[in-house]
Amino acid sequence: MAVKIELKRSAIPGKVPTVSQLDLGELAINTYDGTVYFKQDTTVTQSIIQLATTAGSGSAVVSAS
Fold this sequence. Notes:
The structure is a single chain. The chain is mainly beta. It has strands at residues 8-10, 27-30, 35-41, 46-53, 56-64. The N and C termini lie far apart (40 Å).
């Protein structure tokens, strides 16, 4: 039987998830912008990293706390 995987998602232009909205290892997608994000946890800080976008791929830090 197939397993359906659903990502956290938003269709609001420019909306980026916050570190409190994602768990480590969880992905989020903005279907309007075509971007994918994940939460990174270093020993100093947690941040949201832009993993990919339809305009190209990247690894830019988009928010930190």
